[in-house]
Amino acid sequence: MKSTAQFLSPSEAASQLGVSIKALRLYEQRGLIAPGRTLAGWRTYGPTELRRAADIVEMRALGLSFEQIARVIEGDARTFDKTLAAHKASLEDRIRHLGNVLGQVSRLRAGLGRGEVTAAREGSRPRAPDVSVAFNLPWPWGGERFELRDIRPLTYIVGPLGSGKTQLAKCVAASLPGAVFVGLDRLANGAAAALAALALDPALKSRVDANLAAIVDDGGKESAALLVLLAALQSDNHSVLVVDMLEHGLDAATQGALIANLRRRGPSARPLFFLTRSSAILDMDCVGTNEAIIFCSANHSPPRYVAPYPGTPGYEGVATCLASPEVRARTEGMTAQLPTPS
Questions:
Q1: Could you say which of 108, 214, 218, 341 has the lowest number of CB atoms within 10 Å?
Q2: Alpha-carbon distances of 51 from 56, 58, 73, 252, rounded to whole Å
Q3: Is the bond into 310 cis (omega within 30 degrees of 0)?
């Protein structure tokens, strides 16, 4: 197919943008670009799509995820600024982590230079993780021992329908001192109680109002579901909160604003465990060192911690469980029906 002055073929567009044809197809599959078609059905890229594709290439070079890019394309300059700010914070977090690793490597090399081979070898061995609590896994597992290690301020629990992630979350709540489990019935059963608690506790209401204002300022939408959740998060009656499906009842913009707000709590915040299958809540490109991911697989092998880097064990399993809030809305309220254990 010959090109015209305004429209390019896939190979010509890819060459001009400095990417592969496969990358252009991926942008299209993600709904980020929509090339035209000739009468024969061939894709063509006009000036508008080329400009958009060039913006996508530039944002990918900065390390932004496809979900972040989609929010930028669908939003405005204010959205782009907030996305870049969140991405900048994530990069700075990774830089701090790499700085610590580089420091350790330098110390090991210095030890080797002094002939301290034994000490260097000891220092290079992975340290045994600090175990905060351990318990036997319930059905549908086989009673295996599970250890919660180095509990972070934010811990995502992810898995497909029927993987047992809710059972794991309830065990976490039952095993950690002062932990409280907040289920999916929180809106039906907890709205009145939350409002009553806010009316009786001015300090709690002040904290909830401040966080609500910050979330709304970030593009979130005030709702009963968000109010109930914030009341639980800001309550003084727990030291650890375990929440079933953090995104329950919240739209896409509110989910993004909520997780940004939770990240701002810092490393000394009370631990929060929560189930999620939303890519707006768990953006794998934005997970920092104050966060952890626990994955429950469909084959009921023991849950495991997963590092948020492509190629690490369990990464693809976690990624395949996540979807945009729009896709997640299609299965809102659905639960897996598991057979009763004999």
A1: 341
A2: 9, 11, 12, 26
A3: no
